[in-house]
Amino acid sequence: MSGQHRLGPLPDDWTLPAVEAVNRAWFTSGAITLQQCAGCGTLQHPPEEICHVCGAMTFSPRAVAPTGIVHSYTVVHHSVHPSLDRAVPYAVVLVALDGAPGLRVVGNLLGVPVDEVAIGLPVVATWEELPPTDGEPLLLPQWQRQDQLPQQT
Amino acid sequence: MHGAAVVVGVGESTYYKRGGAPISEFQLACDAIKNAVADAGLALADVDGLVSYMDRDEPVRLSAALGLGDLQFSAQTFGGGGNGSGAAVTLADAAITAGYAETVVVFRSLAQGQFHRYGRPSVGRRARGAAAYTAPYGMLSPAQITAMQTMRFMHDHGVSEDSLAEVVLTSFAHAQHNPRAIRYGTPLTREQYFASRWIAEPFRLYDCCPENDGAAAIVITTPERARDLAATPVAIVAAAHGLSHRDGVAAFGEENFPTAHYRTVARSLWQRAGVQPADIDVAQFYENFTGPVLMAIAEMGFCEPGELNAFVAGGALRAPHGRLPINTSGGNLGEAYIHGMGNVVEAVRQVRGDSTCQVPDVALSLSVSGPGFAPGSAVLFGPA
Ligand SMILES: [Zn+2]
Predict the structure, then answer these.
(1) Sign of dihedral through CA atoms B90, B92, B96, B100?
(2) What is the CATH number of the domain that holds B303?
(3) B133 an active-site residue?
(4) Is the CB of residue A80 less than 8 Å from the CB of residue B140?
(5) pLDDT at site B231
(6) ipTM > 0.90, yes or no
(7) CA-CA distance, A47 to A22, in Å (whole number)?
(8) What is the pLDDT of residues B254-303, one digit of tens each?
(9) 3-state secondary structure (DSSP) of residue B65
(10) Cα A18 from Cα A15, distance rounded (Å)
(11) How many angstroms is it from B318 CA to the middle of ligand 1?
């Protein structure tokens, strides 16, 4: 997959998440897979090593609906790293998940001109297949408008 | 409650644009500490404690280089970036009140021209921890993080771009009276503000603090020691530091997003001081970016978020006669960005009566450290 080009606004050589035990499901499952506490059932994101409600340290993966609403966003115009000089302007969105009230996920909004990004847009997840960073292929969650087809990037 | 310690000296190095300092960050720290100790009428050998936040200048090295007294106490606060300034004052107050040290210098030295730039985060090929959920999407600088908070805050409460502008124009206007300020002699018009380029929406260039080289310090001691000194002592009326337990969840996971992380600090500070926001005569609100300043004004209880546009309009933030004059030295935007330590120095000056934008008859002078990042901290000064 080394020839893969990123779907989003960021360059192929941009930073990727390190896959660790705590986030393996999130970054490799190809679903909106949240941490569900084995003790009390609480869903939490970002994943942590301990449940913030009951203190249990074991979790099971729980996939929720891959849809949400743009809760906030910014359009980045000023490049803060030489690798991003040609990526700007790009939008970063904070998506409130339909399937987990109160939980939010950061991503890029693909295929939408930056001046059309708005709070309240309904979005649906898609996944960027990226080369393995720590042994497994990475499936990085990203977002598209619900009224756009996945291919329209 | 709070300690009994008093502030007896303030000082700073010359402030420079990023990369402009002809001396090292360590030398800047030494300059600020020497100036603050001299302002107090003390000798360097009288200093037996050092407190800072996120600083590279180790007390061991400073002690040896400056000829301080036997070191009895040294500490730094965890996390929060510029939010450490009020917390550092709290630590010094606690140490002195408990008797672990008699005379403590709280300082911060920052030369972004000599080390990494906060606005140019260093990123590796692999983002770990909290950054794993943001950096891969190009969300990594403080401006971008607080832009995400501010965008939702403005949406929820109808906060206008004019209100962001008013924070900037206030700092620049005050800086015109302060010869120490980097923007002294460089006023900014509303038109220049709105014509400036986008950094990360809703922030334009002038919504963002500059990167500077400099250092600032204050000297804190016991009321007994202060009696022997010529300097006018300034009381630490109250200080507060902290967060509610889900306030700092990574990647905007806070249950009360968007927050400047000041609700806990506000509750503690007003309770400890026994005063209300309306009693405050002058305030320094750390301007990393304008949005967090407005969020902090509301979270500290000066007005409801939906009242911000009216609260800041019509010169209400301007010295000397506005309802709540803020950032009277020019603040981070106009004077210099020394990670908020300059705001603490200015809050003390307002009580002493030697600000370059002096508010008359100051009884309560507030410094709010660094909204946008947790934990928050704030300190309230008054006449001793
Ligand atoms: Zn649990």
Answers:
(1) positive
(2) 3.40.47.10
(3) no
(4) yes
(5) 87
(6) yes
(7) 6
(8) 989 999 999 999 999 999 999 999 999 999 999 999 999 999 999 999 99
(9) helix
(10) 9
(11) 50
Specify the pTM.
0.96
Whether B121 has its CB under 8 Å from any CB of chain A: the answer is: yes
Q: Residue B82 sits in which domain range?
A: 6-115+209-383
Task: Verify whether residue B286 is a known catalytic residue.
Answer: yes
Residue at token pair 């008359």: B360
Q: Is B121 exposed, middle or buried (0-12, 13-18, 19+ CB in 10 A)?
A: middle
The alpha carbon of B79 and the centre of ligand 1 are apart by a number of angstroms equal to 27
pLDDT band at A4 (very low <50, low <70, confident <90, very high): low
CA atoms within 13 A on the CB side of B333: 32
Kindly state whether residue B169 falls inside one of the protein's structural domains. Answer: no
Residues of A in contact with B126 (CB under 8 A): 15-18, 133-134
- Would the CB atoms of A80 and B121 count as touching at under 8 Å? yes
Interatomic CA distance for residues B141 and A58, integer angstroms: 33
Distances (CA, A) of B205 to B90, B137, B199: 33, 22, 6
Instruction: Report yes or no: B8 and B46 within 8 Å, Cβ to Cβ.
Output: no
Tell me if B382 sits within 8 A of B234, measured CB to CB. Answer: yes
- Residues of chain B with C-beta less than 8 angstroms from the C-beta of A89: 198
**A16 assigned to some structural domain:** no
CA dist A92 and A28 (Å) reads 21
Q: What's the pLDDT at B338?
A: 96
Helix (H, G, I), strand (E, B) or coil at B38: helix
Contact indicator for B151, B252 with CB cutoff of 8 Å: no
Please write the tens of the pLDDT for every residue from A76-88: 999 999 999 999 9
Nearest C-alpha of chain A: how many angstroms from B296? 19
- Find the domain containing A42 and state its range: 24-148
Tell if the CB–CB gap between B148 and A78 is shorter than 8 Å: no
> Do B162 and B309 contact (CB within 8 A), yes or no?
yes
The count of domains in chain B is 1
Closest chain B residue to A49, measured at CA: B129
